[in-house]
Write a structure and sequence with these properties.
Elements (H helix, E strand, L loop, with lengths): L2 H21 L7 E4 L4 H16 L5 E4 L5 H10 L4 E5 H8 L8 H10 L2 E3 L9 E6 H7 L19 H5 L4 H8 L11 H9 L6 E4 L4 H4 L2 E3 L12 E6 L4 H8 L7 H14 L2 H7 L3 H10 L3 H34 L4 H15 L2 H10 L7 H25 L3 H9 L4 H31 L12 H10 L2 H29 L12
Parallel strand pairs: 1-2
Antiparallel strand pairs: 3-8, 4-8, 5-6, 5-7
């Protein structure tokens, strides 16, 4: 192995160690509560957190909005979180895929095999149902789900998860023999906004949604009994501290349907889920939570630090791998085209699709690891291509002069060719960094955090002001990264190689 290759490998090993340190779970003494990406899950997770804290559990954290069912369940199984709120029918239908999702004993037995326990129901059901604007339903004479069979032209806006679930849209259309072709998936909160504005006619709801009363919606009767009961519970790891499990069990039967609807409305309007959850425990707890609430600035700074961590590690890996690949791709042969084509193909894969694929790969899991791998892959193309281009554009006369000086090939590369191509290489790194800052907002969709967290949360409750808490800092960060690289250009690139401004 030659010296440059050995040095590159050594740096890569160091970067992988940094990546591993970022992705390590919390210490065994900590209890981590997870939640899916909708208001009720956020609030229930915060209730569980406060309940455990009041019972003497010192270190409890909430990882908010980790994703859909599969992602959060995967984190629970992997030990990345200790507990999260779930629903009995979802466990039976989607997680365990039981023939009888109503059989609680079978659900508990199936979970136990996975090392997971389940509390008794918390006291309310959050069932799926279909909703329409009352005025529109009365206009068309629709009261029951079976009435939809006579109206194939309705505009339908289900969520993506509901659309693909066994106990969701596809199964429902089979049971009721529906032929509704105008179907486009929407985020839940956006669906409500469109339904209220008359832009769609039908969507699914959760029966604890405050929007049902607020928008004067009618819940269609499930006259063929398609939907099972979705009793709210907490799933938890059996190896979680006994006192934490006991605290969760203390919530069994304590949250009524009316109380959950109230909490959902408060959480949606305030977007402060800790204070919303504290209101369940009384006025004193609410005042305490309000006083302890993280400031908006502190929240944004914390997320920005996490965002920079994701960008820094993935970009560092991309530089360590991309520059050597670009050097190899700078040679005029067929293998160089293979390298450039492979980097280009990765760039064409939709980012969310790549994240979903990486999450499904064994030993990768959720969180920071798939996010960093995806960002690393997206950062490669500009670095590889610019490095190759910079080297290919070195004049033959200069190459001949370097050889005539008696320099070895490695020395020619290090002392002549790379300095000559440095401006083009740095431009590629700058492009990757700026793209990386924007793309890293998607990391929140796999529970990796960063500035995508408020964007995701704001979308889930249709609150533009929350979305801007992530979008504006991300945009500012991209501009600052560009300025930083412009400064680096002046410090690193030899003065004689900088392009002078043309005067007209």
């Amino acid at each position: 192995m030659n010296r440059p290759a050995a040095l590159c490998l050594s740096r890569l090993r160091v970067s992988i160690l940094l990546l591993a340190s970022l992705c390590l779970p919390a210490s065994a003494a900590d209890v981590v509560v997870g939640s899916k990406k909708f208001v009720e899950s956020y609030v229930l997770a915060e209730i569980a957190k406060r309940q455990m804290e009041t019972k003497g559990i010192a270190s409890v954290t909430h990882q908010l909005g980790l994703g859909a069912t599969g992602i959060v369940w995967g984190k629970l199984k992997n030990g990345e979180i200790g507990t999260y709120p779930e629903y009995t029918a979802t466990v039976g239908e989607e997680i365990l895929k039981l023939a009888d999702s109503k059989n609680i004993a079978a659900i508990e037995a199936g979970l136990k095999k996975e090392g997971i326990g389940m509390t008794a129901p918390l006291g309310f059901d959050n069932n799926y149902a279909l909703v329409m604007k009352r005025s529109r339903a009365q206009e068309l004479g629709i009261k029951r789900t079976s009435d939809l069979a006579q109206h194939s032209d309705l505009q339908v806006g289900p969520t993506a998860e509901f659309f693909n679930r066994k106990d969701g849209w596809k199964g429902l259309t089979v049971r009721y023999a529906l032929n509704l072709s105008n179907v486009a998936t929407l985020e839940h909160s956006i669906g409500y906004a469109k339904l209220n504005a008359g832009q769609i006619d039908l969507m699914e709801c959760y029966t604890t949604d405050p929007e049902i009363a607020e928008y004067d919606l009618i819940v269609l009767e499930d006259d063929k009994g398609f939907f099972p009961r979705y009793q709210a519970v907490f799933l938890y790891r059996l190896d979680m501290p006994a006192e934490a499990i006991a605290a969760l069990k203390g919530l069994e039967g304590k949250i009524s349907q009316e109380e959950m609807i109230r909490l959902n409305g408060l959480g949606r309007n305030s977007a402060n889920y800790a204070v919303t959850a504290a209101s369940f425990f009384g006025k004193e707890a609410t005042a305490q939570a309000t006083q302890q609430s993280e400031s908006t600035l502190g929240y944004i700074l914390r997320l920005t630090a996490r965002h920079l961590q994701l960008v820094g590690i993935s970009l560092g890996l991309a530089i360590l791998v991309g520059v050597p690949l670009g050097i190899r791709a700078g040679r005029p042969d067929a293998f160089s085209q293979v390298i450039l084509s492979a980097a280009g193909i990765v760039q064409t894969i939709p980012s969310l699709a790549l994240l979903a694929f990486l999450v499904a790969v064994p030993y990768i899991g959720q969180g920071a690891t798939p996010a960093i791998i995806a960002l690393f892959l997206y950062s490669l193309l500009p670095i590889v291509r610019n490095t190759a281009t910079g080297l290919q554009e070195i004049p033959p006369s200069l190459r001949e002069s370097a050889a005539a000086l008696g320099l070895e090939p490695a020395a020619q590369l290090r002392k002549v060719f790379l300095p000559m191509a440095s401006r083009t290489i740095l431009a590629g790194i700058k492009t990757s960094a700026i793209i990386n800052v924007g793309t890293a907002t998607l990391a929140a969709f796999v529970g990796a955090g960063g500035l995508g967290e408020p964007i995701q949360s704001g979308i889930s409750i249709n609150q533009p002001n929350i979305i801007l808490q992530g979008a504006i800092p991300a945009a500012v960060l991209a501009i600052l990264v560009q300025f930083a690289f412009d400064l680096l250009d002046r410090l690193v690139i030899p003065a004689g190689l900088r392009l002078k401004r043309q005067e007209y």
